[in-house]
Amino acid sequence: MSSADGAPQGPKPSPGSESDPETGPSSGSVAASAAPPSAAPTGAKPGALYRLGHWCATRWLWVLISWVIALIALQFLSSSFGGEYSDNFSLPGTQSQTGLDVLRADAPQSGGYSAQVVLHDSKKPLTDDSSQINQVTSSLAKLPHVLSAANPLPQNGQPATALSKDEKIGYITMRFDVTPGSLGTSYVDQVDTAVQPLRAANVQVEYGGSLGELARPKAADRTSEAIGFGVAIVVLLIGFGSVFAAVMPLLTALMAVIVGLAILSLVANLTTFATVSPTLATMIGIGVGIDYALFLITRHRQQLMDGLPAPNAAGRAVATSGRAVIVSGTTVIIALAGLYVSRIGFIGKLGVAAAITVITAVLGAVTLVPALLGLFGRSIDRFKVRKLVAEGTTGGAEATGMWHDYARKVERRPWYFLVAGLIILGILTIPLFSIRLGHVGDGADPESFTDRRAFDLVSEGFGPGANGPLTIVIDQSQVPASQQSQLASNLKSALTNVPGAASISPLQASDNGKALFGTAVSTVSPQDAGTNDLFNHLQDDVLPGAIKGTAAKAYITGTTAAQIDFLELISQRLPLIILVVVGLAFLIILIVFRGLLVAVKAAVLNLLSIGASYGVLVAVFQWGWGGPQLGVNGKVPIESYVPMMMFAIIFGLSMDYEVFLLSRVHEAWMRTKDAPGSVAHGLEITARVITCAALIMVSVFAAFILSDNVVVKMLGLGLAVSVLVDATIVRLLLVPAVMTLLGAHAWWLPRWLDKILPHIDIEGEGELAREGAAVPARA
pLDDT tier at 221 (50, 70, 90 boundaries)? Predict the structure, then answer.
């Protein structure tokens, strides 16, 4: 067999011989392999990546021992020194944070971070449990980091404000000097001990707010991971036909993710990461880990079928596909790093969490994978479940098969495929235009969560808005005493009968007289758009009008207000993140493939696929098309940071398939200068492996829809849909159609730009030339 340009492809094993991929070798050792390729020219030295792959394949025992030691050591360090995860964060510079700072300074007992202990007695009024409530309130107030605990019963002749009309539902408001989420799950045990007298009196006790989130069952995504791995095994067995080749990507991805999560846990001891961080890191790590290993193993097996010894085949796989893996991984990491453009630490750290497992996945692909390839040698295909197939066809006269025929159909009628793909993406994108960002409240959680039960009880006893009160803070420290009474009168008048407010408590002065504060409760739940409307009306109209003409300053703070401020920050900075991530990805594609229109095409098509995945999220969660079937209670807004996270992750992951497909197209183009033929060749070579990789990643992401966390469900569904759309509609319809229509113009690059851009040999031909053997056409 020869390549398209006549270069020899190495010895062809005879059927039944030791190196025949169909019958398998007589020994699994590295020594039992075909004769080595031609010697390198005098003075030539193989490239670094080839040497790395070859070394790992020949020293496979040392590499495997190193990975096992690293895994065990990091697990030990993680269990001993790993940090906690928390969803609580601050927003410096926002009005809600400034208002909270005023409360802390002037009314510390009313400042801090609040949470509720919700009480329900179904048989008698809570006033009959007054002795237990008084005892529990006192015990809660004495816990570490608690500033105050407000008794729900009438105190000192004052009416109760945290007791329902039938007196069967009430809540104790606890205020902390730190975010409850940072206290660790062991803190919940202390709260449980403090409320035990009420539970002993048959009073239902539930935890709301951030305390309820802390008390949630620890996320266990083992079922999702098992489903993802199960589907991956089936897909790999069908795609490869080999048991060892199917297990290897799963093993390397699993080890890389475990190492990455241990590192993340250690980093979490130094800074705060969101509770969704390990799940997100697991999703991304498993997905890209399997993909990266799959691309290397596929290339390696083709080299074996072309007659190379296992160490040389592994070296070539790392020098070629391994280089593409590094470029792809770097693109994903850069996209995730782009989240720091938001200047919101919470968002940036989510990107860091995902990037950690991407890094370990890349390291696993270029070291652990070739080590396992060296271990198995030619025995990688010994146990087969079906007839083995090569990586792809030569693209010449021998080219046959489904993907070859499909590629030629696209080549003959590119406009049909382009229009069909755009219509499908357009339909999926339609719901995007009605997207509403917000915060998914506790009411959408499963009933097994204490914060969901607390949410329902508060809604029943006080109305849904009581779950997310808005705290009004007036800083009157610069207002003369002679004007303060008039200011109080103006505020009282302005805060009467405010549309959208179920109630607004009278403002009370702090002990030092420098601040006024009160509570506004919406008529609807915190996640409803009506609460945002009330917030904006108070902030933009009511309060500015009441303090006009004075030196007073007005703020709205509290958890709900902070979430709305967070949403506004996200909305303002999302366009900048999109611009930065798209720009960086455009630059990478331009540098790697030296084609201006190729880079433009990659950016535009990836944006279209992301828009389609956003549209599906809106239809499912916001419109409720299937939300209840996914375990979501009612219609919910799209969590404010999910589109930003999805954009960075999807844009990075979509570059995986872009790089692997275009690398083969570019390889053929550089060899033949036949633009349509190069597109067909690239599609023939990569379609099967990209399809397998996409099915695996879709199954991994989709399995996380089973999570109890609604945000994880959103991310799982959104990422699964985006990969499915990208690997089918974009990669199989739009990319080949657009590349065929562009023809040779796709690879045009101004000379002045070509001179200033660095050169990256993504196909690894330079390294293989230094190895002293021609690149096989299918390699």
Answer: low
